[in-house]
Design a protein that fits this description.
mainly beta; 26-stranded antiparallel beta barrel; about 5% helix; single chain; about 65% strand
């Protein structure tokens, strides 16, 4: 029987095999797309699944005895995002699903001229995810590149090899890498995976990375060796129960000098401390947690002991009438390390009350903290008390399409600090030394906004701050603007009488698939701790830029789409004070319009790694 311009569906009923043994070499590749949910027809038999294979052809011939179908004249067979095309194919049922006999081409998309395709002599379709080709030929832009007797293509929801990658690094030489992808056996496809990546260096050594990702978080372990060993651990996991219990862990740790040298990311090696903590938390009105905590200087050798020990935490919050709130917390950590045993503790209390009388609003807040550090031969006690009062007149005016809020206010703050020390205690935790300080500031807050469109807010404060011995003038400025195109933020502190300033500027425009630009400028000169005390949002002094001393740093990032699926991304971070480059990077990537292929080249430099690092990667079905 023949027919023209027909479209049919062939149902396959099969039991997925546990193991497929091949006598010849098999290439198993995990693609990077999540398959659509397969369609089932009828009620499958126990142990079997039913799926549909879509096809159409100019001519269809049916063999009544075997049930096979003969397709000819622009025959196309689709399984998930795999598309087989041929001038003549014979389809029949097999143990794996559907067997296709005849030469043709397999592509990952419906494009007429795909960049990457595979020629084949036969194909076994195991819906909804797998395709096994016989006599496969890899073709790039239509040209044959590689032949294999068998080729096994798999989805990201099935286990398989990850695409190989090649790169060059100044220290390591040529880098070749590949890996194995294993999805979780969960009820939700694509909800988690285990990836094992292996890389080898032409100058000796290599790299092994294991990454576990699921709905609870992600964990990554990297082992690197080049004359020395380095270990990198990054993890953040949390799970909860209906009874209000949480198990959470977080780790950011580098072991060994090679770890700081091997990482290509500036932010990874710039952190001063390694941290890890695992805890069991119970939340029922109050929060109580028990766990284990470790802390060490960044990138210490594996044999160097870090501080390690149990930790206990408690916190409770409640309302104060209709206009206030109070919060209490406590934490204790007993640890042991190279310097002997030590006990650290911290008690915090915070309260806030806001009252209104006509157009005036009065806000009173109080923060108290007691920090203890006790070692065998030393002890340290730090006490900080903060009292703040703010009285203002918030004025709001609504226009036809936008609103404007203006609030003149007067702020008063008193900060009392005491730092008592006996002997010398190692400062594993960076707790600011809060001396007694006061501040009196006149503020002007302004906010302007359009509903769901744009917003601008600014705060200008001027006044005096100081200690019992002296007082200095201070000028504070904070502004943020959010538009449909991007955002701009500025945070500045200036002490005119001491010629000290601290400025942070952030600017970003653009969105995905368009020109994107982001820039930052951080500058600090002189001692601005008094300005922090006059205007801050917690007890801790915020870190400014990536510099550990006064200076100026700048960073920028520019992403450009060039059309035809070509994108570029470049940027860097500069230490303007020392006139040196802290980090730089550049990436050029091609992505096929139907998103079936992504090819990219990249290069980067960073302080602490001599020379230039480059990489090339190719992804089929990129995420």
């Amino acid at each position: 029987m023949t027919a023209r311009s027909q479209r049919r569906r062939l149902r396959s009923s099969y039991a997925p095999p546990r193991l497929i043994a091949l006598s010849a070499a098999v290439l198993c590749a995990a693609s990077c797309v999540r398959p659509a949910r397969a369609q089932a027809a009828g009620k499958p038999e126990p142990g079997k699944a039913e799926h549909w294979v879509d096809f159409h052809a100019d001519h269809v011939e049916v063999e009544p005895e075997s049930g096979a179908l003969g397709l000819s004249g622009k025959a196309v067979v689709r399984v998930d995002r795999f598309q087989l095309s041929s001038e003549a194919l014979k389809l029949s049922r097999s143990a794996r699903g559907v067997h296709a006999e005849g030469s043709g081409r397999l592509a990952f998309c419906a494009c007429a001229q795909p960049v990457i395709a595979f020629g084949f002599q036969s194909a076994d379709l195991a819906p909804p995810t797998d395709v096994l080709l016989g006599g496969a030929t890899l073709r790039i832009l239509g040209l044959p590149v590689l032949w294999s007797p068998y080729l096994w293509l798999r989805s990201i929801d099935r286990a398989g090899l990850m695409p190989p990658a090649i790169g060059y690094r100044t220290l390591e030489g040529v880098v070749l890498s590949t890996g194995f992808h294993y999805p979780h056996l969960t009820s939700i496809p694509g909800s988690g995976s285990l990836d094992v990546a292996v890389a080898g260096y032409s100058r000796g050594g290599g790299r092994l990375g294991v990454r576990l990702h699921d709905a609870r978080g992600s964990s990554e372990l990297v082992l690197d060796y080049l004359e020395r060993f380095g270990v990198e651990v990054r993890s953040q996991q949390a799970s909860s129960s209906a009874a209000g219990r949480w198990v959470a862990e977080r780790a950011d740790w580098l072991f060994g000098a090679r770890a700081r040298e091997a990482s290509l990311e500036l932010t990874t090696v710039a952190n001063p401390l390694d941290r890890a903590q695992v805890g069991l938390v119970r939340a029922r009105g109050s929060v109580f947690g028990l766990g284990v905590k470790a802390l060490s200087l960044r990138g210490q050798s594996v044999q160097d002991a870090a501080r390690f020990g149990p930790v206990a935490e408690f916190s409770h919050g409640a309302a104060l009438g209709r206009s206030g709130q109070v919060a209490l917390s406590a934490a204790f950590w007993s640890s042991a390390g190279a310097g002997g045993a030590r006990l650290d503790g911290e008690l915090r209390g915070e309260s806030e009350v806001t009252t209104r009388s006509g157009p005036m609003a009065l806000n009173l807040s109080s923060r108290q903290r007691l920090a203890l550090a006790s070692a065998v031969y030393s002890a340290r006690t730090r006490v900080a008390s903060e009292l703040r009062a703010r009285i203002g007149a918030p004025l709001l005016r609504r226009y036809s399409k936008w609103t404007h809020q203006l609030e003149p206010a007067l702020d008063a703050a008193l900060l009392l600090g005491m730092d008592a020390r006996q002997g010398v205690a190692a400062a594993w935790e960076s707790v600011p030394n809060n001396a007694s300080q006061w501040a009196l500031l006149a503020n002007l807050d302004s906010a302007l906004g359009l509903p769901n469109a744009a917003a601008w807010e600014a705060r200008v404060a001027a006044g005096f701050t100081g200690t019992r011995e002296r007082a200095v003038g201070v000028l504070l400025l904070r502004s943020r603007m959010d538009l449909a195109l991007g955002a701009l933020s500025l945070d500045a502190r200036y002490l005119p009488t001491r010629q000290a300033f601290d400025t942070s500027l952030r600017f970003a425009i653009g969105s995905n698939e368009s020109v994107r630009f982001a820039a930052s400028l951080d500058a600090r000169e002189g001692d601005t701790r008094l300005a922090y005390g006059a205007w801050r949002e917690d007890f801790d002094v915020p870190r400014v830029s990536v510099l550990t001393q006064p200076g100026v740093s700048a960073g920028a990032r520019l992403a450009l789409p060039w059309g035809a699926g070509i994108f570029s991304d470049l940027g860097g971070v500069l230490d303007l004070s020392a006139e040196r480059v802290l980090a730089s990077f550049a990436t050029l990537r091609f992505r096929h319009p139907c998103r079936c292929l992504s090819v990219g080249v990249s290069g980067a430099t960073r302080i602490g790694r001599p020379g230039f690092d480059a990489a090339f990667d190719l992804s089929v079905f990129p995420r």
